[in-house]
Amino acid sequence: EYFYCASFLIRLYICCNYNQLLMLLQVLQAQLNALLQGKENIQSNCSFTEQALNHGSPTEVLLVQKQMGERMSALARHAFPEQPHENGHLDCQVETEGLRRSIQNLGVLLTTSTVGHTSVATGEGLRHAVVGQNTTVTVTTKDKDGELVKTGNAALRAQISGADGTVTETDITDNKNGTYEIGYTLRSEGEFSFSILLYGQPVRGSPFRLRAVKPCDAPQSPDDVKRRVKSPGGGGGGGGHVRQKAVRRPSSMYSTTKKKENPIEDELIYRVGTRGRERGEFSNLQGISTTSNGRIVVADSNNQCIQVFSNDGQFKLKFGVRGRSPGQLQRPTGIAVDLNGDIIVADYDNKWLSIFSPDGKFKNKIGAGRLMGPKGVALDKNGHIITADNKACCVFIFQSNGKLVTKFGAKGTSERQFAGPHFVAINNKNEIVVTDFHNHSVKVYNADGEFLFKFGSHGEGNGQFNAPTGVAVDGNGNIIVADWGNSRIQVFDSSGSFLSYINTTADPLYGPQGLSLTSDGHVAVADSGNHCFKVYRYLQ
Prior knowledge:
Elements: H1 2-55, H2 58-77, E1 91-94, H3 96-102, E2 107-110, E3 115-122, E4 128-130, E5 135-142, E6 156-162, E7 167-168, E8 171-174, E9 179-184, E10 190-198, E11 201-202, E12 208-213, H4 225-230, E13 247-248, E14 268-272, E15 285-290, E16 295-300, E17 305-310, E18 315-319, E19 332-337, E20 343-347, E21 352-356, E22 362-366, E23 374-379, E24 385-389, E25 394-398, E26 404-408, E27 421-426, E28 432-436, E29 441-445, E30 451-455, E31 468-473, E32 479-483, E33 488-492, E34 498-501, E35 512-517, E36 523-527, E37 532-536
Parallel strand pairs: 4-12
Antiparallel strand pairs: 1-2, 3-5, 5-9, 6-7, 6-10, 8-9, 10-11, 10-12, 13-14, 14-37, 15-16, 16-17, 17-18, 19-20, 20-21, 21-22, 23-24, 24-25, 25-26, 27-28, 28-29, 29-30, 31-32, 32-33, 33-34, 35-36, 36-37
C-alpha cells in the first residue's frame, strides 16, 4: 500500500509539473519556428534573385530591382533569435524522509529562465586583482529579454587560467535571489583569462582579461562607491616606469602570423602611456581633445601639464608648470581646441580656464572669480566657450574674451539641475550635451540653456550609467558617452536611444574620463585608471 501511494503521488506530481515543462518546450519551439521561417525566407529570396539574374532580360531585371532590394533590406533588418531562449536546466529534489513520514512532499522540479548571453558580471575583480588578496565579483542573472531573474539554483561555473596553463580555483556563492558571488585568490602576478559560464554559455563579455599585480604595485583605489564618485580615476603619480610608446594593433587578429599578446579581438587601434612623469607618461589623465589637423591633446591632471600627440600616437609637445599663478596649472581636467588651434584648459583647482597658443604659450585666463571647479570644456558654433562647473553644479557660457554670456543649472535632480556635471559636448544643432555624474544621466539643452531632454538611469544595462563622464557627438548627431563606473563606452542616437557599445573587452577600460573624435573618425578616450589614452575604431 505504501509503494502504491508513492507511485500515485509521483504520477500526480509529474502531471502537475507537465504544464511547466510544456511552456519551456513551447518557447524553444517558437524560437525554432522563427529560425526555420527565416531560413525559408532567405532561400526563397536568393532563389528569386538568382532566377531573375540568370534567366531574365535586362529589362525584366530592372522591373524587379526595387522588389528584390526591398526584400533584401527587410531580411537584413530582421533580427533572428540566434541564442537559446531557455536553458537545459531540469532537476528534481527528492525528499525521501518526508515521503516516509507523511507521503506529503516528494519534492519539486527546479528550473530557471536564466540564459548566459544576457546575464552580466560586475566588479573590478573582472579586470584587476592583487596577488594574495581575496577578490570577488558579482554575477547578475537575466532571462532572454534582459529581465532580472530573482531565483537561484542556476548552473554557474567560473575558471581563471594563466598563460602557463595553471588554473585558479574559484568559490561560488548562490545568494538565492538571482545573484552570485565568485571569489578567488591569485598566487602570482601576470595576465589571466577569466571565464564565467551559465549552463555552458558565456555571460556577457566573458572571457575577461584579468591582470594581477603585487601589493606594492597596486594603484591607489577607492574604498567604496561614494569615495570613487568623489574622486574618479584617483591615484597618485609614480616614477620608475618604462617609457611606453603607442602600440599599434593590426586591423584583424588574423592579419599577421605573430603571436598575439591578446587573443580577444576588439576595436582598439593603439594605446599610449603608462604611469609616470615623462613624455608619453601620465598620472590620472582626465580631458582629451582633438584637432582638425590631426592632433590629440591630453590633460595630464596629476602631472599638471598638457601633452600633444599625432593621430597615430606619436608624441609632439608637452607644456605646463605647476602653480596657482596665471599661466600655471594646478589640476587640469577638461580641454578643448578652437578653430585657431588655441588650447583651452579647465583648471579645477585654480578655478579658471586657461588659454594657450598651439605651441603652449600662455595667452589669457577667463572665469576667475566666477568658477568654483570647472571640469569639462567645449566650444560651440558661435565661438562661445562652454564649461561644466562640477562644484557649482551649473554650466557657464563665455565669449572668447571671457565675458559671461549666461549660466544655467543648480544642485539637484530636476531637469535644469545637476549633481556633479562632468563633461560637455556640442552637437550639430549647436545644442549643449552635459554628463550629469551623480544623477547617472545625460542632459541636452539648447544654446540658451533651455532644457530639451535627458536620457539614462542608474544601472548596468543598455543605456544605463554608473556615473557618466566624457561625451562626444559624431557627424550624424550620435552621442558617445564614457560610462565611468561601468568602465565602458556607449553610443546613442541623437534622441538618446541606445545604439551600441564600442568593443573594449580585449584591453578593458578602468574608469574612462574624457573622449573625443579624431580627425580621421576614430574615438580617443582618456583611460584614467590605466594612466593611458586609447584610440578605437568607430563606424558612424
